[in-house]
Amino acid sequence: MSNDQTARSGRPSAKTIATVVALPIALLAGFGFFQAMRPPAEPAPEPSVAAGPQVMPTTPVTMDAPALTERQATVCRALLSQLPDQVRELPRRAVTAGHEQNAAYGEPALTLACGGPSPSYPPTDDVYTLDGVCWHKGDGAWTTVDREVPVRVTVPAAYDPAGQWVINFSKTLIATVPHAERIPPGCGTRA
């Protein structure tokens, strides 16, 4: 039987069958080759603390409001008036007391308290200059040690590393809270 007779009989020729079988196999092999030669994909970034939709509590953050001198109150009002509405992805929240000296962000709440006592720490403790502001880290909080009025920032463990959160306040502190008369050793120069 010739090829003409096979074509007329309605059955596919051997060439046609070979082509129909070989073509998908060749396409799959080519796809597999290109997938194998493609550079590896970058790992997906770790989600941030506030990644995805979150429900932000509507209740104010509980904070104490120590009595301030007139000068401290003036400085704290200046600072609070310039704080951002958001720190990274953490929105600002209401506080229970000291609206002109306290601020809170996110859940769990990162808090900032202006005024109160100056930190007491051994002279051998480390101090950290973060973007021009000198901080002491202790008791779960970071407190300025080179400012006329101390400012204390409490960073929950969920926001590690804490110093990377504290630094967000440095520029506002430099602009609104004057230097202390005496700057502790290790704090560098005045900003």
Shape category = elongated
Percentage of residues assigned to helices: 25-40%
Major beta sheet summary? 8 strands, antiparallel
List the strand order in the largest sheet.
Answer: 1-2-3-4-8-7-6-5
Query: What is the N-to-C order of secondary-structure elements (H for helix, E for strand)?
Result: HHHEEEEEEEEHH
- Content of β-strand: 15-25%
Could you say which structural class the secondary elements and strand pairing correspond to? alpha+beta
Q: N- to C-terminal separation? A: 98 Å
Mean pLDDT: 85
The oligomeric status of these chains comes to single chain
Query: Uncertain regions: pLDDT < 50 for 5+ in a row?
Result: none
- With helices defined by DSSP (H or I, 4 residues minimum), what is the helix count? 5
Number of separate strands? 8
Structure description:
Strand 5 and strand 6 form a beta hairpin. An 8-stranded antiparallel sheet has the order 1-2-3-4-8-7-6-5. It folds into 2 domains: 3-37, no CATH class; 70-176, no CATH class. It is of the alpha+beta class and 191 residues long. Helix 3 packs across helix 5 (170-176). The chain has helices spanning 3-9, 14-37, 70-82, 163-166, 170-176, and strands spanning 86-87, 90-93, 102-105, 110-114, 127-130, 133-138, 141-144, 151-154. It contains 5 helices and 8 strands.
